[in-house]
Write a structure and sequence with these properties.
mainly alpha
């Protein structure tokens, strides 16, 4: 009986240790939720048919961008040097700020009916997302 119980305990521990990296890797932070809101809003623009729908989606992304400034990326916990952390925090806020400005420009482009300008701005937003993810995600 002891062997069976020990084996079950070992098997359970082994299975749980396999699940642990998934839990650590999964990013269920408030910041991740805000970034997901931005991303999903921008993706839904492809299906939006009216200017009003597009503007509402962009405004939702703008709100999420501002809310995301309340949080710092998870990897900041690994930065021990306070001066380096301050620089990284300022850079992170700058990237979010640039994204917010581009979202405002996108809203203006939709209101003006300027599809070429909106496409150009979407390209800039993709570049900012890529830069932010390269710097501040694991």
């Amino acid at each position: 009986m002891k062997f069976t119980s020990s084996f079950k305990t070992l098997a359970f521990a082994s299975v749980m240790s396999l699940a642990l990296p998934v839990t650590v890797i999964a990013d269920d932070t408030p910041l991740a939720e805000e970034m997901d809101t931005i991303s999903s809003s921008l993706k839904r623009l492809r299906r939006a048919e009216t200017t009003q729908e597009k503007v509402e989606l962009v405004q939702g992304a703008q709100k999420a961008a501002l809310k995301s400034l309340e949080y710092l990326p998870v990897i900041f916990k690994d930065i021990k040097d306070e001066a380096e952390k301050a620089k990284s925090t300022a850079d992170y806020k700058m990237l979010v700020g640039k994204s917010y400005v581009k979202l405002c420009e996108l809203e203006m482009a939709f209101l003006a009916g300027d599809e070429a300008k909106s496409d150009e701005i979407m390209g800039h937003l993709k570049d900012l997302k890529k830069e932010g993810h390269e710097k501040y995600t694991e």
